[in-house]
Amino acid sequence: MGPATAGPTEDTAGRAPAPRPATASARRNRRGSRAERLAPLVLLAPAILIIAGLRLWPLLLGINFSFTGDGARNGMNVGLDNYLTLLHDPLFRTALRNVGLLVLLLPVAVAIPGLLATFIFLKVPGHRLYRGVYFFPAVLSPVIVGAIFNLLLAFDGPLNALLGGLGIGPVDWLGNPDVAIFAVVGVHIWATFGMALVVFLAGFATLDSSVLDAAKVDGASLPQTIWHVIIPSLSRTIQFVFVTTMIGMLTSMFGLLYVMTGGGPAGSTYLPEYYVWIQQGQMNQPALASAASTALFLIMLVVGLGQIGILRRAGKED
């Protein structure tokens, strides 16, 4: 009688057999899954390299340059001297104060395109015409916008003539230090809210219409629908518009400032980006300008992260 053969699960010594080698199909599946995981990284690599080479590396160089001196101390390490100079410069403190004003006015700058996008989405009469009219200022050059509003807001311009007809005294829109910054910010909001409007309309395209229908059936008014339905549903879109609008206010108002006020009157309309240009282009202090640029970057980072945190908490509470 021949020797007994081992069972399918144990050998003659009672031990479990060694695991079988992976089949060719299993190896192919593993290679395929690994390729799928690496594919996004390969596709993103060129964009990442471009951002790192053209954005991050110059940013690091600028931060490093902000710790060097100007003039006789050119190239010397001066530590935090440039930042201390900024803190003691009245013009830079005015620029920081104006940044605080922009933060306070930011909800208005976001609410205007948000409400207009809501009316367009609800298809008020003439909504197709309004969509084109509202977006038109976004394609104009800031220099052209500034020149137009210089004429409209002149002391003897059309706006003051209209106010005079209503019995209201003329306002020195661009010559009064207490009014000029509000005038420039208002013009900037008018000139740029078209892009935010497009973003809001894209957000409305993802909105579930059944939710709006349910609110209408429940008898919700328009303000109630906006507050309790539309705003919570578009929380991600609102976050994006808040951050991009704030960045635009801090980095895209140079053209208007240059044309409309030149930083005046008495430096009252200075913003960090305009201060950077003055120090670099007119005062020939590139290291101090680099310190101001670094401060502007930190301001945008802190304000942006703070806005996202506040909006996320508000969304969770709703």
Automatic annotation (TrEMBL):
It is found in: Cell membrane. The chain crosses the membrane at residues 38-57, 99-122, 134-155, 179-207, 240-260, 287-311. Residues 91-307 form the ABC transmembrane type-1 domain. Residues 14-26 have a biased composition (Low complexity). InterPro entries: ABC_transporter_permease (IPR051393), MetI-like (IPR000515), MetI-like_sf (IPR035906). GO terms for biological process: transmembrane transport. Residues 1-31 are annotated as: Disordered. The keyword Secreted does not apply. It is a multi-pass membrane protein. This is Sugar ABC transporter permease. It comes from Solihabitans fulvus.
